[in-house]
Amino acid sequence: MTAVIETEGLGKQYRGRWALAGCTLSIPAGHVVGLVGPNGAGKTTLLNLATGELAPSAGTIEVLGNRPAAGPAQLARVGYLAQDAPLYAGLPVADHLRLGAHLNPGWDAGMARRRIERLDLDLRQKAGTLSGGQRAQLALTLATAKRPELLILDEPVASLDPLARREFLQDLMETVGEDQVSVVLSSHLISDLERACDYVIVLVDSRVRVAGPVDELLATHHLLSGPRRDPASLPAGLQVISASHTDRQSTLLVRTSGPVLDPAWAVSEVGLEDLVLAYMRQAARPAPRNDHRHLEVRK
Amino acid sequence: MIEFHLAGRSGVAPYLQLIHQVRHALRLGLLHEGDQLPKVKDVAAGLAINPNTVLKAYRELEYEGLVAARPGIGTFVTGTLDGGSLAAHGPLRLELQRWLAKARRAGLDDESIEALFASTFRAASEEDIA
User: Fold this and answer.
1) Contact between A7 and A25 (Cβ < 8 Å)
2) Is residue A229 one of the residues assigned to a domain?
């Protein structure tokens, strides 16, 4: 299967600052990919490079095997929903659908109509007077009715209240179930995406910290706790993602391909949220190794 | 038709939760041979979870021989887990209730009862294996 997004050393520089650097990814088709990271990490930059709105300063990017926005055919294959669901505030819902039909060769009018009915939107209502949740769902309708192979959504639920957030994700998951479309969506909160995503990319400080299928990440990361120990003395093949210590105990989040056999450790599973947070924390302040004065002390 | 639910903070992977719920329903006789499981699309939309998660659960159940997918129609229950023991549930439940009442009279609280049951259960299973 071809990759939906394939990058090699991809970077983007704005006025001397790298918004994205050294990004090498290969995202297989058929996934719902969560792109997570704090605000300003480079998520929107990566998505804009994928849609072709930005050109790379370094490296390469291919989307569905082609250069992003290479031509009308390529544009038709990618649906994009920018942050805050941009719509024409003065135009009624019906005109948005008409616009969609005119601008997209593969427009599925039947699907758009069914979705609008299901969402119970009034065709005559102006987009500017819709609720935040309705605006997001109208924008999603426009992005999906063009029948793309890849749907790119930038922070689609960030501005929605919890109920609208759940409804949006229900709607999106139904679309994925019906159309087998690949999805990449970004959020600064992994908890928003935990149920929806089966592939995760963690982006912090303009760099990809970890990327992979959720099942695989959960299977290879473990939480170890045991008598206090210097992380540097651990066997090879055990990569420490985060460590905290008290005077007697060490708690480590590690990545390893094999089982942890040392009986001194109590091994437990890690949830996706804890896993992602550990990578974010690691990026925020790299822990100096072998220096006990700097080891974090916790109760 | 059963309805799935997810415990967000349980730490159990969502696909496993779905499998447990089907097995549980089979064991309690809430699902019978020939019953249809909710459609993948509907479960995904209802719980806002990835359709692949639902598919994974259904594939696993199929592998266990409990359900079968009929392409284009849906997934149907083909096996049973009660092992013909459903009829025995009633009397056993009654005995258990009597035992629980006895345990309470002896002054055991909920946690002690659970701990006693779990440790006895484990010891008995170990004897079975040995």
Assistant:
1) yes
2) yes
